[in-house]
Amino acid sequence: MSRLEAKKPPLFISEPLTGDAVSQSLSVLSRILKSSYGPAGRLKQLHNGVGGCVCTTSQSSTLLGHLSISQPVLRVLTASVRNHVSRFSDCGLFAAILCCGFIENFRSLNVAPFTVIKISRHLLGLCMEHLKSEACGCRVSVDFSRVETLACLVRSILTSKPACMLNKTEVDHLTSLVLKAFIYTVPSRVETNVVLGKCVIIPVKGRRVVDSTVFPGLLIEAPEIQLGKPLAVKRTGSNMIKIALFSVSMSGDGFNPEEGTVAVHHGVSLEVSELNQLLHVGKQLVKDEVGLVVCQKVMHPSLKQSLKENGVLAVDRAGLSVMEPLGRMTGSQPIASIHSLSPGCYGTLKDLCIESFASKHFLRLIPEDTVTCSLILCNRSETAWDELKRVCETAEHMLQLTVKEPFALLGGGCTETHLASYIRYKSSSLPASTFKDLDCSQTQYQLVADGFCRSLESVARSLSHDGEEILTDMVYGHSWFVPSGSPCVSKWSDLVSRCGCGMNDNTEDLGWRFLQGQSGCPVIQGCPKEPSAKVADLLALDCFAAKCSGLQVALETANLILDLSYIIEDQN
Amino acid sequence: MAFRDANARRHIGLQQLSSLASTGRTFLGPMKLHKFIVDEITNQSSLICSAARLIGSLDLTNAAGQLLNETIQAQNKEFKTGVSTLLFLVGVWSSAVVECLQQNIPVPAIVSLMSEGLSSCCERIQCLQIPIPDVKRELSIPINSCSHQGDDCNFKKCQVSPLAGFGSAKPALASVVKAVGDKSPPVLSGRGVPASSCLTRKLTHSRHFSTPGKSRFSSQQGNFQPYWDGMGPSADLCGCCGLGHLAVALSHGNQTSVKLLQSIAAHQQERAECRGSSQINVAGVATCCVLGLPESYSCVSPGFVTLVSPEQATVIKHFADKTLRVLLVDGDLTEQYRHLGFNRPRNVRTILEHPNPQGGRAGDTWLRRMLDILMSFEVNLVLVKGNVCEDFMERSVSSGILVIGCVARDVLRAFGAATGAQAVTYLSQLDASCVGNGAQAELWKARDGRALDLGELIPARIGAGGIDLLTVVLTTALPSKAQLLEEQFWTLLYRLHHALKDGKVFPGGGAVELLCLSHIQALAEQPGPPGNDKAMRELPSPWLAEYKSIVLQALGSGWKRYLSMLLCNTARASSELEAGTLVDHHLQTAAACGSPSAYILEEFRRGGVLRSGSDPFPDQVTDVKVCDNVAAKTEAWRRALDLVLLVLQTDAEIITGSRRSQILNSPMSNEFMFL
């Protein structure tokens, strides 16, 4: 007997931001994110509480991916940050913390939301204009003919996640590997349409980080390969190796129906007929002079045996991650069905060899013109490896983004404080026509600008996790950190050592001031200067494109949330 | 999702680590005390003697404990040694870090200084490394004669006393002790006088080999049965005497395993010379535990020794000296088995149109078909990686085919290489090229030919001409000790393997730790940061100086407590306090003589570091020089510190999944926050 239940009416919540629960959740989320930010950020243990594996991380993608959030307002926030991370890989925490800061700071202003939105968009425009201008003091250009700035960028990303557990030697080693891997992915011939290749990360867990290495070409683990024997592989007339790539399982269970039931007569074996079909495919491959068969999934042992007897190398369980680069580098079409083999789907390889690494054996596939490389990534523990893998992927992505826009932004909080002091200076010298265009008063503009700057500064402040005081200087607008529990010192220069990004030190008096919370923010008399110093060798740098996008995403999302007047919740 | 603040100043995670680690203290050093692990539900207990098994058997539900277990198992998997060191250091460094936190040192400073300090120590101790070719020279400079052997044995006996608690333990124990004094090495079969006299001469300064052996010859002969003579290593045994020294030094006093190891080294040496490498081939070694014989009967047999049923033993007897055709199967040998990755069809229904009640069971057809295949290829021996179904086992025995299940992958590989057999997954794959030739099987005999009708299982030996496989037969009268013996043997084999792989060893007995300690003290007094770390560069110098001295002392305290515990566990100090004083004394002497590393090396050459005038057993230290693995030790340190620092930097736990109501109802619900 079935029973029909009347539909519940949807729940309307007006002014969703005013609720206590929302602000509490927002402040918890903001605390989680802020405490994870930067090279000294605290780690979070993610686990299911019943003995599942423990993931230790401080990455926004992992954190936001695992948080199950019931507040719709917060879900808007996390969704847009995750979307940003999926496009730029980097600056996820920056965007999320900044967004929380905007919401908190703008909400407490006594200004109508639509005015706040208009003014803040104008402020964002000022920021973007400044960041894109030549005179921008927190931007450095990246010279691809020199390795130093690139190395700084990669190093900053590697050191920004402490759960990777790297020491200095290991950071240096990985920095050079990541750069090497990136260079392998750049095509040697320049055409009008340059497409960068791909770096595939091969996991080797439980080994030392310094054992990591990079190979041009693609490595596929082949545990059954026999080491002692020379690798005999069939070649075509033009001395190339023909390769067939299967994305379909060849384990011989293809008759397994998804749903419904298959009835067969006694004595008929679906398994045998499926195997015969596979063996038939094998014969076709032999006839077509294929030298190497790679299957993403499992191959039936009988098929492997039959291919081997005919001099065809067969590798199964290659995994999804190599399929796309493998198809691209060999020009083969992944075969998705064992019933249709068209000769056009085969690809070619120039060479094949065996590489052994840490008791694992790999086949190295070398194409004619390689833009694919394999990074064998080692780390001692499971959780540190996982974190390191994501960090290396971020670094590779960041280098690709930097090719498009060859700039970097100063890290260590310096970009944030510099932008804040720029906005403070700029907003105090705007012509009256601006306020008229924005339909607001100068006071309103000043209030919103102040909130905007405080939000930026709160991101820089989030880099401090051990009670350090944060200072800014009156010349460049960089950020400086002073440890808590001061030993007695008399001079400013004893209090500070080097600014967050590492560009300036304490040798000349830069007019340091405390960057305080709510009031008394210093205003620079004039635009913050562009540092005259040469780029130091250990600068903390951030990806330009990712940070610009993070800034925009944070403001747009905050404005969207501030503009919410109703939440309609379907209760069924 | 729930979220919990884990830490603040009283760091819960670090406290958990330190209390978990304290359970493994007695495993530190060569005199390990055994432990019983009792399962409260099944009431079963097992005897353990390693940190890996201890932590593996604990019910670890908290995140820090799980990370600790993961770290321990990773070290054990890679090195099989250094695990107790790792566990101990996790404990002491956790407490040391908590103390740093209590002195308000910021977390990044602790992380950076400790990590740089460890790197610096690892670089510093490189000067102590002894290259393998020099090991023999370093180890055989004699200082004292071996006149105190008797005392030594007694000393040993009282050290392993926990075992003496068993009534039945006595015979086995006695035989262990006897093995020290009476038995000559069962090691090198060889063919004659030159070999063993060479060995005797080379090893005179080791207490294990010092007794002039009247019975040496006969006992050696018995060790490998006559028909193995041709396969034994050739007369050139001098080369492996270096390995002999190394094995003794790495054994940390485990005599039984040393002899087995030397035997393996001697056998593999010959093969290695052909290959041009001096490494130990771990994959070419298997172990087999035989219960009911005294431990002194343990030995190394060429080929594969395994336990078989009486029925299988009958088949083997029938084989006599026949060469066997061998088949290797890399899956299970059951009707239901399918290769990995094959998804069993769920929705296939078979329709039987003409039921035939006399048709017999379906399984019968399969059995008959499989046996027919084996018969048609004249296979006598089937080695199976997985399980073998009982019916098949029975039928094959009655057809005179020997089927052995649960054979390790490496053993299959060795047989494949020696006989030309190619492993198949299903018998239906079989063709003539898959079957190998030239295997033999016989019942294994102890070296005195003693009957081994010991019960349900009988040891059998399967060989093949030129097979690169040795089986270490570990005999014991105590079933509860079997696993221990096996573990101890593998630990030692891996130590030797890694020593050869590293190409160098550390002087043992606390030498490296002592140098680390002295280096840490020097480092703490130096101005400037220990490395060029960014976090340290940003730190103004007044803070740096203060933090550096406290944090480096904390790092050093780990090794100091390690050395103290070592002295206590080996009864060279009666309390941690006394041990600490002794360590301090040596540190001061080392610092005073200008070059601590030279002092430590000199002390090691003279018989061992950390000796004291009031040592109750002065000769115990002087006549055995111990060595440690390089990579295993430094990796254990690094893994220990990584774990402590990882937990230190963690400030919250996030419980994933939807267990909201469960957490809300738990007593700890007020610790959690929800989003």
Automatic annotation (TrEMBL), chain A:
* A GO molecular-function annotation: unfolded protein binding
Q: What GO cellular-component annotations does this UniProt entry give?
A: centrosome; cytosol; kinociliary basal body; nucleus
- Does ATP-binding count among this protein's keywords? yes
Q: Provide this UniProt record's keywords sorted from A to Z.
A: ATP-binding, Chaperone, Cytoplasm, Cytoskeleton, Nucleotide-binding, Nucleus
Q: Which compartments is it annotated to reside in?
A: Cytoplasm, Cytoskeleton, Microtubule organizing center, Centrosome; Cytoplasm, Cytosol; Nucleus
Pfam families from the UniProt entry: Cpn60_TCP1
What GO biological process term is on the record, naming one?
animal organ development
Give the matching InterPro entries. Cpn60/GroEL/TCP-1 (IPR002423), GroEL-like_apical_dom_sf (IPR027409), GROEL-like_equatorial_sf (IPR027413), MKKS (IPR028790), TCP-1-like_intermed_sf (IPR027410)
Q: What is its main location?
A: cytoplasm
**Record note on quaternary structure:** Component of a complex composed at least of MKKS, BBS10, BBS12, TCP1, CCT2, CCT3, CCT4, CCT5 and CCT8. Interacts with STUB1. Interacts with BBS2 (via coiled coil domain). Interacts with CCDC28B. Interacts with BBS12. Interacts with SMARCC1, a component of the SWI/SNF complexes; the interaction takes place predominantly in the cytoplasm and may modulate SMARCC1 location. Interacts with DLEC1.
Q: What does this protein do?
A: Probable molecular chaperone that assists the folding of proteins upon ATP hydrolysis. Plays a role in the assembly of BBSome, a complex involved in ciliogenesis regulating transports vesicles to the cilia. May play a role in protein processing in limb, cardiac and reproductive system development. May play a role in cytokinesis.
Family recorded in the similarity comment: Belongs to the TCP-1 chaperonin family.
Q: What is this protein called?
A: Molecular chaperone MKKS
Source organism (scientific name): Zosterops lateralis melanops
TrEMBL record, chain B:
| Gene Ontology MF annotations | ATP binding
Please report the organism this UniProt entry assigns to the protein. Answer: Zosterops lateralis melanops
Q: Which GO terms describe its biological process?
A: chaperone-mediated protein complex assembly; photoreceptor cell maintenance
Q: What is this protein called?
A: Bardet-Biedl syndrome 12
Q: Which InterPro entries match?
A: BBS12 (IPR042984), Cpn60/GroEL/TCP-1 (IPR002423), GroEL-like_apical_dom_sf (IPR027409), GROEL-like_equatorial_sf (IPR027413)
